[in-house]
Amino acid sequence: MTTSDKTATAPPADRARPQTVTIHDVAKHSGVSYQTVSRVINNHASVAQHTRERVQQSIQELGYRPSLLAKGLVTRRSQLIGVVAHGMNQYGPSQILQNVQESAHAVGYQIMLTTLQQVDLEHVREQDVLTAARRLQQFGVDGLVLLTNYDAHDIADGLSGSLPFVMIDATADVHGPTVSIDQFGGAVTATRHLAMLGHQRLLHISGPPGWSDAKLRREGFESVAGQGGSDILPVYEGDWSAGSGRRATLRALDDGVNFTGVFASNDQMALGVLSALKERGLAVPGDVSVVGFDDTPEAAYYDPPLTTIRQDFAQLGRKSLEELLRLIQEPAGRERHYVFGSHLVVRATTAPPR
Fold first, then answer.
1. How far apart are CA 157 and CA 176, in angstroms?
2. Alpha-carbon 351 to chain mean position
3. Cys-Cys link to 184, which of 122, 216, 269, 287 (CB 3.0-4.6 A)?
């Protein structure tokens, strides 16, 4: 009988871990000084094009990743944008955040995100927003983007003078730079569409009252619904979800409210409206016409496809970053308020009343 011993073999002593590539390695590889590599990394204009291309080729071949800290020593900036947000489970806020990120990355910035825990669906504590903003400031962010689809007056005052910031979806009367979409005007367009088709008994399914978007859309609806002899009907509130839109519609039907048109404050609640109407044997648009808000990707595939208000979230993201970078470059620059329009997308859920 023959036995054999199995012993573990240690790795060769000279098999060292790969070393981190440094700026000096890039300089040696490309045959230039490390100062030239630094100029290329920081987009300095004084580098010849053929030299720039040679350094960039070396960076790619060696897998060099410039340190944000080292870059900051040259530019005096961290290339970081802080974002304070809430409601990320909702379509609108999530799309806004995605487009802010894409716009930031396109100009060489990274996002540092803080999401807030809400007391409930309607309320965000002012102190939580300010605490999150100050924490991001401690990380050295160059500026702040705040998704402020709630009353932001006190928050804007609390941030004033501390760091460049831009508020998205804040009303234009706050003290601070804002970029938003005209929620009031979009609701007016939706409601007028129903009114011009001949509907006079209009139901509104509103979003949570603590959200500025819901408040402005309700005000836009009411500015049209009470005109031209239209009946004033009670407003039913939802929480942005399809289930809440369904429940609100069923409550209105059980309360005996007689309506031929519905403006739901977002597409998800509009989906719930369609479900409730079908459940009660009402045809869309034969018996009731329905308009939503947002134009989610799924809206075109509802049954029937949903008439809705489209918002350009990409435009919102681009402009918010453009404005923030302007304020980073010009800290004493004048604050500006940008309000973009929305437009109606007519599909199969609206028609004249019978």
1. 8
2. 32
3. 216
